[in-house]
Amino acid sequence: MLKRQFTIVILVAVVILSAGIASADYIERECALISDKFDRVRQSLQMETQLAIAVIPFTSRLTDLQQRNIGFGVSELLTGSLVNKRTFTVLERSQIEKVLSEQKLSLTGLTADSALKVGELAGAKLIVMGTVDKIGENYRINCRLVSAENGTVLASHLSDFRIDEFEKKAK
């Protein structure tokens, strides 16, 4: 009887741990899906590999999300995924911040036009930008791949991240 109870406890622990890992992996898989999608767009447009790409921190209309830097967290997760994809040359955030400083701009509240200008001045051919909103228990991520040359949106992707899972992952 004791052996059976021990087995049940172990089984429950494994299920609980697996659920936590699966939820964190969901966010990584979603970021990888976005990276793959952006790479397929690059290929379909017959763009060269290792194009310079700038990831701009995502914006939000909600003050709470701005204050907690949720958009920054989303952009960091996507940056990691794009770096791991190895088909883009991802510009380091310090390069982008240097251009922002020279242009007397800030990453927070950056408009789409300003983001394009910054991306182009930093040497990016492509820019990843987007928004984060809160819908119920989720962060709604609207991510766009934009040509730095002319501002054309080349691809977009909409994702929902559970708030609790995202915040665990972003720590």
Descriptive notes:
54% of the residues lie in helices and 22% in strands. The protein is of the alpha/beta class and 171 residues long. The protein has a 5-stranded mixed β-sheet, sandwiched between helices. A hairpin with a 2-residue loop joins strand 3 (126-135) and strand 4. Helix 1 (2-44) packs across helix 3. The model is unreliable at 5-22 (pLDDT under 50).
How many helices does DSSP assign? 6
How confident overall, as mean pLDDT? 81
Which stretches of 5+ consecutive residues score pLDDT under 50?
5-22
Proportion of strand residues: 15-25%
Radius of gyration: 19 Å
The oligomerization state is single chain
Helix content: 40-55%
Write out the strand line-up for the largest beta sheet, numbering strands in chain order: 2-1-3-4-5
Shape: globular
Major pleated sheet: 5 strands, mixed
Content-based structural category: alpha/beta
How do the helices and strands follow one another from N- to C-terminus? HEHHEHHEEEH
Question: Could you give the distance between the termini?
Answer: 41 Å
Tell how many strands the DSSP assignment holds: 5
Key words describing this protein structure:
171 residues; alpha/beta; five-stranded mixed beta sheet; 6 helices; 22% strand
